[in-house]
Amino acid sequence: MRKEFDISQFDKYREDNRREVKKANGGLPVSLWDTYSSFANCYGGVIILGIKEEKDGSWRTTGLQNESKLRKDFWDTINNPKKVNLNLLTDDDIATYTIGERKDVIMVIYVPMAKREQKPIYINNDIFNGTFRRNYEGDYHCTRLQVKAMLRDQTERTMDMEILDKVPMEDLNYDTIHGYRNSHRTLKEGHPFERLNDHEYLRSIGAAAVSEEDGKLHPTAAGMLMFGNEYDIVRHFPEYFLDYREEMDSAIRWTDRLQSSSGEWSGNVCDFYFRVYNKIIKDIKVPFKMVGGERVDDTPVHKALREALANCLINADYHGVRGVVIRKETDKITFANPGYVRTGKKQMRLGGESDPRNKALMKMFNLINIGERAGSGVPNIFNVWNDEGFVEPEIEERFDPDRTILTLSFAKKQAKKTSDKKQAKKTSDKKQAKKTKENIEMIKKYLEEHGESKTNDIAEHINLSPARTRALLKEIKEVQAMGGNSNRTYKLENNM
Question: Is 416 part of any domain?
Fold first, then answer.
């Protein structure tokens, strides 16, 4: 966190999603608490008092009139549960500096990221109207759906462990169950679970449990997701949707598509995993390898793709909107799921801390040797991509709605030779310019068809990050921005 503010770099700073400046001439700004909530509910940040942001984005010190009183007011307020539901700060999280020729005093407040079990951090004793998050456009009110997602994530018992008391065991798809059992039997011959009947087996793996309500065996939420039929799953998870999109020919919108709602197959998580995995690996080249006299048709890339797909399904918030979307293109595969990263994006990359959103689903995948329990899955993916010489994977987290996106590119890293770098840069610049032009045209077309739209909706349509989409929108002269912060929308002037 401390790296977010270095007094020696003051003149280079601008406001962004981790830094916020406020003048505080008349005491503590009311908006300070919005920012405290937003930083705590995202990745933390610094609030700097005694600074004004100029029109060009640069900072100018205004200084604080009474730093000691301001500090006391801050601690009194943050420890008032009627104003802030939880104080995350200690004395070490506030620092003062004297800066410039005028010796202006500024106060720097370091706000840490709240732990999963502490979220949401909210103000004014109003959880639904007082919860904020941060993006590059500032602090914005969380929706009721976002707040409910944080509340669901507080508990140690994940939502997939819920017993569906009203659902009979007969509602599960036993073709899927038997296929799963065959995989388990093949991979772990002689496992004690082999001897169990189907109902006992499902109870043992967490797909079913005895209800305290009637003393009978019923599917768990995980069992329904993994082994149910789509038309039953959506009764319990109305937003449930699994989508595989293959875009291998620019002339054709989808060269292949698989949707859970098609009615042509079960539509459950288990069958989706195996169907999609076979699709994403069909173009992977397998080197000839013999082990024990038998050919091995598997590579580290195969294992990484299994991990990425399982990770996407295991960590999806199945109450979240827009569903799970796997997109395969000629040069990359994108795995997108509803829900923010429970451990934080940085920790997800580092690994070593396992905190799955659906623990029961993870157990079921682990039983058939899919997925890592120790939180090493994502670091392993990065290691494989590095060993193969591919461009480093990208992890992106979007809010409103919450989504986690992992992009695995099959493009090779640029050559290290200077001449190669220059040539690669020229080629890259040309490609980027072409891509930028194409994206701008796509944005214009989208606005022509849909009218006034939010950044996230446009970004989702053209498959870009909201930040990049926002930058492109600023470049288009015909586009007019309306509103501020999270309410900002865009519209073509000739469509007004």
Answer: no
**378, 409, 440 - which closes a domain:** 409
- Separation in Å, CA 162 to CA 40, 212, 240, 358: 29, 12, 16, 11
Tell me what the mean pLDDT of segment 187-209 comes to. Answer: 95
pLDDT number for residue 1: 46
Mean pLDDT of 11-21: 72
Please state, in angstroms and rounded to a whole number, the distance separating the CA atoms of residues 188 and 366: 11
Average pLDDT estimate for 203-231: 97
The per-residue pLDDT for 422 is 63
Q: Is the pLDDT of residue 463 over 90?
A: no
Confidence (pTM): 0.74
Q: What is the mean pLDDT of residues 419-447?
A: 76
Domain-located, residue 54: yes
Indicate whether 127 and 68 sit together in one domain: yes
Range of the domain at 119: 2-152
pLDDT score, position 319: 95
**Structural domains of the chain, count:** 3
Tokens describing residue 367:
């039983």
pLDDT of residue 496: 47
